[in-house]
Design goal:
2 domains, two-stranded parallel ribbon, alpha+beta, flat, 33% helix
């Protein structure tokens, strides 16, 4: 499979423990079915943001910024229930 992917040609290598390097490299087998469906995870609530802020010992606004960065969206596009 490694040769078929041509991973060496694009700089991806395996460590002694067979982890891919660089760490951001991903490979896998993906299966699909014509009747498969996708789902939404729903809105992020104020309580969830507050719990994460408390758990990480950071301010509420910083958690919102982190979520936006992870989702790569602008402030107006993040669906928060505040």
């Amino acid at each position: 499979m490694w040769k078929l992917l041509g991973a060496d040609d694009i700089g991806i290598t395996l460590t002694e423990s067979l982890a891919m390097h660089p760490a951001a490299s991903v490979s896998g087998l993906y299966f699909s079915h014509p009747a498969s469906t996708y789902f939404s995870t729903g809105k992020i609530t104020r309580q969830q943001v507050s719990q994460q802020a408390t758990g990480l010992n950071i301010c509420f606004a910083f958690v919102i910024l982190r979520i936006m960065m992870m989702m790569q969206l602008r402030l107006c596009a993040v669906r928060l229930v505040l």
